[in-house]
Structure of DUF1236 domain-containing protein:
Amino acid sequence: MNIKVVGIAAGILLASTSAFAQSSTVTGAAGGAATGAIVGGPVGAAVGGIVGGVAGSVIDPPPQQVVTYVQQAPAPTERVVVKEKVVVGQPLPETVVVTPIPDDPKYAYAIVNDQRVIVEPSSRKVIQVIQ
């Protein structure tokens, strides 16, 4: 009985994953469920959804005007390099200086390891890596 309930819950969660993936970057429960389903089937989806829900949440992409601003912002004269990989959902190291976006204080940016990244200023969490 429990396996059947887990299977149904995993199916519902996987169905909602595709809807989330169409509108934003998916992490957290939906991303964990998708990864868990690939690795371990329906039971993996249920476990992945729980683990992902604890580890993260859905991160909405910033508005296009913020992305355009960061793409066009002049690069600093001094190059910033860190050993850690820049990952969406993870904070930048404290040694990296983030610059606020003048027209939208909900966002800031930095250029790290030759990558332009948009971050949440208060937590320094990476919202988007611009390719």
Remarks:
- Residues 2-55 form one domain.
- The chain has three helices and four strands.
- The chain has two domains: 2-55, 64-130.
- The chain has a mean pLDDT of 75.
